[in-house]
Write a structure and sequence with these properties.
The chain is of the alpha/beta class and 303 residues long. It folds into four domains: 76 residues, no CATH class; 33 residues, no CATH class; 126 residues, Dna Topoisomerase Vi A Subunit, Chain: A, domain 2 (3-Layer(aba) Sandwich); 36 residues, no CATH class. The chain contains ten helices and 13 strands. The strands form four sheets. A four-stranded antiparallel β-sheet has the order 1-2-3-4, with no helix packed on it. It has a four-stranded parallel β-sheet with strand order 9-8-10-11. The longest helix is centred in the middle third of the chain and has 14 residues. The two termini are 36 Å apart. About 3% of the residues have low confidence.
Amino acid sequence: MRNIHQLLGRLDGVKGGRDGKFTARCPAHDDRVSSLSITLADDKILLKCHAECTIEDILKPLELRVADLFMNGKKGNTPAEKREIERVYHYQDADGKPLFEVVRFRPKGFAQRRPDSQWGLGGVIPVLYHLPEVLQAVKDGTLVCLAEGERDAESLLDWGIIATTSPMGAGKWRKAYADTLAGAARVIVFADAGTPGRKHADGEARSLHGRVGQVSVVLAYPGGAKDISEYIATGATADDIEALIADAEPYVPIEDYTPTPEQAAYNLTDIGNADRFAEQWRSVLRYSYERKRWLFWTGSVWR
């Protein structure tokens, strides 16, 4: 865990903050008196439930391990209350009223707080980012893009594209978010590179499959960018973004996938997969021995 706010954002009823000491409602029992003490002590976070819940019982509903209480195994970390706030992302309810905030810190870290500046959601039910705009897009039958994280959603919004994200990062997708998007004409999921990001995107697409007109997933970005924000930062143009959207293929759950005769002709081996990959991507991918990396054909240049 990078900072204490990553823990506080998962707890309800968080109070305090002086000298790295907080209290909150214990997630291991029906706590109505904030019996959990949280203390930042150098390189670790100390937890104590005054109702005598064990550490393991406290961490289990938070989906954390004891190892997560150690800040990267390094001593001398800057206390969380002194970390610099880089940006605040505002979440609203369906009527546009403030619901909660996601705070991004520098060095990188995230936490949630309510509009009254109390840390944690405090019983607030999380919703999709930019919910009013998303609901209007669903009603109007316009495209909705689903990114991983507020920064990526904002990067797409800067291009005039209706974009949203689910709060608290990969692995936190809820059925209620799919309910919100149900009936949308088309949803495109922009995955982050790497296994966690792709797994998260697959879960989102799977939950939307059959509930929206069409759901597609963007799994890779030209130049090896790790996400849509990084790709835009490399100088991608409006035409490049439109091409990504236009080329995104409809999502098909693996259990519904039926290979074409051409695809079935390749052996299910490493060599067969290499042949299949070469056949599918030979027109847009080249390996540059001079640059020691793969190049992607954008339609006008190799990048």
